Amino acid sequence: MDIKCLRNELSLRGKNGLPFLMAAAVVWVVFLVIFLLEMSIETKNILAFYGTGLMFPLAVVISKLIRADWRMNDHPFGILGLYINLAQLIYFPILFWAFSKSP
Fold first, then answer.
1. pLDDT digits over 55-79, tens only?
2. Burial code of 62-96, b = ≥16 C-beta within 10 A, e = fewer?
């Protein structure tokens, strides 16, 4: 099986990433509401930072609603994606520290 065929199959099974696109649209609406509120910029920044945490859980819920299969266990790049996501855990403490010093 060539890579193009595999890519197309995975894209169709995952419904072309539609759950993540829909979740991103909701998160951007949350950002809009946050920045239209009357509060300090530091509070808005913190709320927007926390708002990004909605992305993945919302994408999971939407994928269940539209029956998209994006958790492909037989995907050849699955372990690479796992390693890249685990590397982000190193950056989170640095991000929290920087955000607490200068929001």
1. 888 988 888 888 777 665 666 666 6
2. bbeeeebebeeeeeeeeeeeeeeeeeeeeeeeeee
